[in-house]
What does this fold into?
Amino acid sequence: MEIKVRLATEQDAGALARLNQDFNGGDRRCAAEITDSMRNSDELIAVAEMGGQVVGFGCAQSFKSFCYQELQGEITELYIEPSARRKGAAASILSCLEEHLASRGVAEIKVLTGMDNETAIKTYERCNYEKDDELLLKKRLT
It folds into this structure.
């Protein structure tokens, strides 16, 4: 079955809620919250469809910082449901997000993923992402 990738629309909110819960766990976000987020942010969300069903998504951000001359880009999420993996969906979503980030003026994109997530790392490397020596530290405030 052919994979089709496109930017998400508000009609995808229900599928995004389901996939996000599969990916991140916890309570399912309601479609209205996702639609509101889509309307009120500059986040790029790409979806992969197979057989008319949304089977994966990826998210990206672009932002300006006084620290850097160029606009910064980051892939923040990438998830493909198990039944649709190894069919090119992840690479196609990355390509879609890269194209849209480039059209915004982004020249370099960062990706954060788990150090032991070998499957994701291999996917990113096949798409020409390179490992670097940065370390992510985080702190929960609430």
User: Anything to note?
Assistant: DSSP finds four helices and five strands in the chain. The chain has a mean pLDDT of 93. Helices lie at 13-24, 31-39, 89-104, 118-126.
